[in-house]
Amino acid sequence: MIINNSVLADLLQELPDLRPQMYFKSSLTALSHAMEDQVLASSDAPLIIASFQQERFYRQEAHRYQKIALKSDQIYVLAAPETSFTSGYDKYEMVAFDPEDSLTQEWHLVVIGQQYASCLICQECPAATLPESEEKLIDIDTSRRFEGIWTFDRQVTKKAAELLLKRILAYRPELKSKIKRAQKQFLQVKIAEQKINEVAEYPISNPDPFVQRLVTYLQAGQYKLLKAYKSITVQERKERLVNSITAAIRQSLNTHEILSKAAEELGQAMQVCRCLIYRCKQTDKFATNHHEFLSHGVCSLAGENWPLQDNPLFREVVTKQERVYVANTQTDGRVQNSLVLQNLVQRFGIISWLLVPVLDKGRLLGMVELHHCGTVPHEWEEEALELTEAIASQLGVALIQAEAYANLEDLNEQLEALERTRSNLIAITGHELRTPLSTIQVCLESLASEPDMPPELRQVMLNTALSDGERMRKLIQDFLTLSQLESGRVEWHPEALQVQECVDLALSSTRVRSTKEELPQITAQVSAELPLVQADGEWLVEVLNKLLDNACKFTSPQGEVTIQAKTNGNQMLEVTVADTGRGIEPNRLERVFDRFYQEEGALRRTTGGTGLGLAICRQIVNAWGGKIWAESAGKDRGSQFHFTVPIAESN
């Protein structure tokens, strides 16, 4: 059996002049105990009806009703069963009602004696949904609220008893005769209050003013306690969220991961429509959004160029170095007077806007933005604003740590590169210097110890010594050249040049240096109609020389080397030196420009060289603002080296 009618609603319908009040659970407990104590202290045998909602609430008071049962045989206790509570008699009548009955939401206590009467008829108010963290902190039982009637009025009390006895009879029809006796004894007999006062051993005083004052005091205390709970909860929530986000962002030293996690955690915690976190400096004109949190149905800003310098809100943040909050973009003067902000508001539906800077010692590192979208403005409480500022502060610390770690990694990489350079330098110079020196020494010793050496052999010895001496000179020259380029001690003399003339000079130099070597076929396909370039002629020829030497070195005499040039847009001219030689593995195309890089290893090479030529080319090309890169289809499939030169401005 399920009865959906509320006893409180039925009572208010029967007695419309009654005005319900709000009570905390602690106040109801105090009132109930006071009413029960009055029964225990009197000599009456009253009618008592107590409804405890759930069995667990009844168990907390069962010992009191064991004592009260000694006073009267008209005691009825109601509860929804959970474990062992059942309908029956155990010194008093127990009524187990259906857990779906409306009684599970009500709290009742009715006491009617010969000399006193009081009742407490209340219905529990729906509990507000609290975050999990607040549920753990606040005592939910003490903060429960009830709406209802508490009175000493006998007529009201009798009407409440009548309604409850009907409810009991519905669940336990076998109590019909006992309930009828209770109705006749307590509800139908008219008792004159004045006569009772005359007969009573102690006259009845109206306790209402005193108890009302006591209840008011209890209620005020409960409100203060609840307010304190909420204050502690807010602080605990703030600390928990800050710690949670701090732990999340400090699990990584990667800037992208830090900002992504922070946006996700903060957006969820603040329950905003959109949370943006982006890196920016005070002088930036735009920022690109890569890290955001979106609620359902809100459009994304990922990849958008977010205006900064033309954004009055951003400029205000930079100037004040503190948060800026726009409660309503439709009425805020800063937004209405800026076309940029109006465009953003219309495009992305922003109605409430919060900007909080991420700072480190006054330096702007980034920005946290919270957007509330829709038609109704959202007012963030001061606690929420302070919480966002706390997160932004933690972000600043995390970003500085990430930058420090990145700088440390860069430094470690540089140190490793220096160590590799030192090792390569020792290996290569040891090999490249020792080998020609040994040859020169052998040749000179032979010439000195063999005065009768045939002229033909003497000439061979001299040519060998001269060749290895030239090899040593080139090695030392390359070292000096690269050192000058890397240290910035080169004086550049840019001028307008024809690429064709520089190519011809490089080809002539290559052929002169290689008169005794069989070279691959070299073809120049450079038009004289190409625009002039702006470069230092000496260094441009140096780049071409080294690229040609490199191509010839790794291409067989039966192969081919080609030089081409073409315009690459309106600003640059692209020169390509291609060969049909050994080729380069795709994963090594970038490494070939490193200092001392050797395709075959420093000590297992079939061709000479220091591995400095391409490194020198890169330094020269970068100096005039160009680019240099290599392409190859793979091993033994040739290679192409490209570099760009700025086109000279026409007068």
From TrEMBL:
InterPro entries listed in its UniProt record: CHASE6_C (IPR033415), DICT_dom (IPR019278), GAF (IPR003018), GAF-like_dom_sf (IPR029016), HATPase_C_sf (IPR036890), HATPase_dom (IPR003594), His_kinase_dom (IPR005467), HisK_dim/P_dom (IPR003661)
Signal peptide from the UniProt entry: none
Domain of life: Bacteria
Keywords: Coiled coil, Kinase, Phosphoprotein, Transferase, Two-component regulatory system
Pfam families: CHASE6_C, DICT, GAF, HATPase_c, HisKA
Record-linked PROSITE patterns: HIS_KIN
Keyword check for Phosphoprotein: yes
Record domain Histidine kinase: where: 428-649
Known catalytic reactions: ATP + protein L-histidine = ADP + protein N-phospho-L-histidine
The enzyme's E.C. designation: 2.7.13.3
CDD domains attached to this UniProt entry: HisKA
Keyword flag Transferase: yes
Gene3D superfamilies, per database record: 1.10.287.130, 3.30.450.40, Histidine kinase-like ATPase, C-terminal domain
Coiled coil: 401-428
PANTHER family cross-referenced by the UniProt entry: SENSOR HISTIDINE KINASE RCSC (PTHR43711:SF26), TWO-COMPONENT HISTIDINE KINASE (PTHR43711)
Record-given protein name: histidine kinase
Protein's organism: Floridaenema aerugineum BLCC-F46
